[in-house]
User: Fold these one by one.
Assistant:
Number 1:
Amino acid sequence: MIEASLIDDFFRRDREKILVGTRVNTIVRGSLKRYLDRRGFLEINPVIISPISDPLNHPVDDPTLSYYGHRYRLTKSMIFHKQLALVHFDRIYSFSPNIRLEPLERKSTGRHLAEFTQLDLEVKDRSRDFVMALAEGMINDAIEKVKGSIESSSLNPHLKRYARPFRRVKFLEAVKEYGKNFESVMSSEAKDPFWIIDIPLEEREFYDRESEDEEGILMDMDLIYPNGFGEAISGGEREYQYDRIISRIHKKGQSEQDYSLLLEASKRGLPPSAGFGIGIERFVRFLTGSEDISRVVLFPKKIGEYVL
Ligand code: ASP
Ligand code: MG
């Protein structure tokens, strides 16, 4: 009986690991929340289903559900809702559950789950530099809180308060030096988190803002954890003007129809903004130094598996 074996698996879970993971998760969420609340952010409720979601730059299964004759997507990220929220508020965040039905190739990366939560935030009238500094402060603060309350034998032995600002490497320079697989090579070599910035247009979604100075280069960034833990954050400045959004949708070969709601909003006026998302379970994985993300999550949606 498959159903019974799901329950067997659950009862057999390594309690030590999920307990530490869940305690770290609790501390991290509290710390990130307090950091943002003190800086004037409002927490908004996550959106779970909506007619519009993140297009993502890589293929995932994109199921929809129908409700009273209307099509809804499961949220892959709240990017467009973050931009819309700034019509009314100045700085917002959400602990946002995302569904990304990733392909099997991602099964053994140790850091992908089909369901996860990211702290997704967005700030009106601010630049990439502003949110990068915010991220660095938030991460150091959370590390300090975790180190202060969890026994060090349960944590990543390399954890420390990292010197700021974190190093910045341009995407094309990283590729030139380390090749296409630069992220995992550089992450394994690094002792401190570092930024990959200026990611080319074809590597990312249409909503990250194209530079005014360099055609085809985006005002965006990823944060990479050291010690081989890979990607922590994605974010950037955003396209918010109708003409630019439409031209980016075309360049990406996507359909205007699918983003008509965003286009409609941009006609009425979306504010300029910058923001990012940080995956909570990945942060916990890094903090606990766990190779496999699923070991520190209570109900992990492992890629390609039938699970609770
Ligand atoms: N949340 C990210 C952002 O703000 C996008 C992502 O989910 O990868 O850009
Ligand atoms: Mg990313």
Number 2:
Amino acid sequence: MNPNSLIAKTATELGRDLESGACKAEEIAAAYLERIEQVDGKVHAFLHRDDENFLAQARASDERRAKGETLGPLDGVPVCLKDVISVEGQPLTAASRILENYVSPYDATVTRKLKEAGAVIGGRLNLDEFAMGSSTENSAYGPTRNPWDLERVPGGSSGGSSAAVAAREAPLTLGSDTGGSIRQPASLCGVVGMKPTYGMVSRYGLAAFASSLDQIGPFSQTVEDAALLLETISGHDPLDSTSYPTEVPSYSRALREDTSPCTLGLPKEFFGEGMDDEVRQAVEKAIDFFKTEGYEIVEVSLPTTDLSVPVYYVVATAEASSNLARYDGIRYTSRSERAENAVDVYAKSRGEGFGEEVKRRCILGAYGLSSGYYDAYYLRAQKTRTLIRQDFDRAFEKVDAILTPTSPTPAFKFGEKSEDPISMYLSDAYTISTNLAGLPGISVPCGFTEAGLPIGLQLISKAFEESHLLAVAHAYDREHQFGRRAPELG
Ligand code: GLN
């Protein structure tokens, strides 16, 4: 099959073609490697590739299939991972200098599940250092560029994961979302991105940023593909104590069966000031679509919305300062060559190994947790976090899902926000409360600006209602398929 037609396909289509014998996994892998060679010099989604290993996995899939031992719909389909998810024997840098020479000694649970499903695991994808940021400008290895406009950011922190799908360098990728890091880059790159309910996907083998907020989730061209990837990686894992013991429903089946219109809530606090006009228009058009399909649209209120960014930056930095204490120059990280005594080893290794934003977060977090300030910052933020969750509980008494824009603006230019941390932090104003409340959220492409930049809408549901959330998202996506459009990229 022609390589250009292979890379245009969704994972679901590739799975069907493999099944029918229309193509081989090795052909698919080779087509993607060719594409990456063509475009990644411009996009810079990848930090590391092991092409031989990638092709070998594809050949192994073809051999299984030839013997009639196929492992499922993803057998032979490439999936690339954000460089915070462990793959045994592969590097994991978290886009930080401090992990420059680190190689994972084991597989993350999501990696193991992908391997068990026969997926072909590809290269390591760029991000903001330790997933802290919204643009990939904080990567120690240079930023990723938005495939729709190379002068603009792809969003972040999972910018490599969103750009790789948009640029057709991978049909599926995984990212992690602590405050919006899957949904915001998905929106800015015009692809689907989903953060599952906290506890639905194991965090074992994910380099931790803020453990009470982090979740791994899928990127894809369509909601149908996101459902397929999510059902593959979800499920209880005894290796993650916060993983929830529940059965994983077939999300793919839910897309076909759960089709009756429901009630969608529009939080009035999200539709106020600060939203770009073209974003507003595209989201309003999507709301009109739902209305004509028979969905009931009602206004809801989430009064604590404006507290979510400040609460997040107390909670997330507190957890980060504790999680990142392990990068000490003693164990698996690089050690400063200038260290002259034990304290120096810690201070200089961390001083040289971490970038500015990571240092800022560690200092902020340690401050918020320190005796004398704990009550004023950390404790207060935790109490407010409960109020944020209760706002959602009340809203879900009236509605089945909540609809908002994903990001207040389309992709911004490099440098536009990087000098001003607060304006960068505000680009997650619509996504952060979902993490604080532990709820699932999905970003679905809903149009383009006049200048050709993608726009995304966000749907949020009750905890563990992924099936329903995906079904609502699919009802829109099936009819619009904006994520199937690909940028030119010369
Ligand atoms: N942009 C947010 C931050 O900088 C969220 C990051 C994320 O979800 N990992 O913390």
